[in-house]
């Protein structure tokens, strides 16, 4: 039985639901639910997981993490079982290099999202993913990255960066002396070696909320 199927069964039973009841609430057939729980279906698509999270009233990100969609390597200490709190955080559009990260000009709107309880408002922001640079980490256009504001990251971590004042993008970062190597998780893009003073690190990606309407 797969890890996700095991977990789904545990949650369903803890909620006092039968498979038929979960099928009724989620609009997913009882036969499909049985195959998922028994590990015969494989990992469900994000849209199916969204239906399950709504029916079971558990955080969507929790189930996505259990299914292996959310990038755990973006934050190795992240515990998908921990209690989340709802935090109102800014969703940023363009991030320019000449203004503070949370400048009013950068904020497209505010969102209330379930965030690990170690983070508070003012420490984090969200940004929608554009482009296919990070598909190797299963980060796709339309996904929502949650970012902790910090001016440096460890080698190999995923960060939101400005290069030469241009709009921010996601890249993995490695520092060598006075240069940074910015590289995508997609083999069709070559790494860029750039002088450190030409790069602004806006923050570290701590986890990703996947778009349930996109096929991965």
Short description:
The chain has helices at 3-14, 19-26, 30-37, 46-56, 60-66; strands at 84-92, 107-116, 124-128, 144-149, 158-163, 169-176, 179-183, 192-195, 199-209.
Describe the structure.
21% of the residues lie in helices and 30% in strands. The protein is α+β, with helices and mostly antiparallel strands. The protein is elongated and about 60 Å long.
Morphology call: elongated
Order of helices and strands: HHHHHEEEEEEEEE
Q: Which architecture of the largest domain does the CATH hierarchy give at level 2?
A: Ribbon
Binned, the helix content reads 10-25%
Structural class: alpha+beta
**Secondary structure tally: strands:** 9
Instruction: Return the average pLDDT rounded to an integer.
Output: 83
Strand order within the widest beta sheet = 2-1-3-4-9-5-6-7-8
Radius of gyration: 19 Å
Keywords:
216 residues; alpha+beta; 434 Repressor (Amino-terminal Domain); Umud Fragment, subunit A; 2 domains; nine-stranded mixed β-sheet; 30% strand; elongated
Layout of strands and helices, then pairs:
Blueprint (H helix, E strand, L loop, with lengths): L2 H12 L4 H8 L3 H8 L8 H11 L3 H7 L17 E9 L14 E10 L7 E5 L15 E6 L8 E6 L5 E8 L2 E5 L8 E4 L3 E11 L7
Parallel strand pairs: 1-3
Antiparallel strand pairs: 1-2, 3-4, 4-9, 5-6, 5-9, 6-7, 7-8
């Amino acid at each position: 039985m797969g890890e996700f199927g095991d977990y789904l069964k545990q949650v369903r039973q803890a909620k006092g639901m039968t498979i038929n009841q979960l099928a009724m609430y989620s609009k997913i057939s009882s036969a499909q639910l049985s195959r998922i729980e028994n590990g015969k279906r494989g990992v469900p698509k994000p849209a199916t997981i969204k239906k399950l999270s709504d029916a079971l009233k558990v955080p969507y990100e929790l189930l996505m993490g259990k299914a292996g969609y959310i990038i755990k390597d973006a934050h190795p200490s992240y515990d998908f079982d921990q209690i989340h709190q709802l935090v109102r955080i800014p969703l940023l559009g363009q991030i320019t290099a000449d203004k503070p990260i949370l400048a009013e000009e950068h904020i497209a709107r505010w969102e209330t999202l379930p965030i690990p309880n170690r983070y508070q408002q003012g420490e984090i922001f969200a940004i929608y993913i554009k482009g296919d640079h990070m598909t190797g980490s299963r980060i796709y256009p339309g996904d929502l990255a949650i970012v902790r504001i910090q001016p440096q990251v460890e080698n190999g971590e995923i960060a939101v960066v400005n290069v030469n004042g241009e709009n921010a993008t996601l890249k993995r970062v490695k520092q060598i002396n006075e240069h940074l190597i910015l590289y995508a998780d997609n083999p069709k893009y070559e790494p860029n070696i750039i002088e450190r003073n030409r790069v602004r690190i806006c923050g570290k990606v701590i986890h990703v909320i996947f778009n349930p309407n996109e096929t991965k």
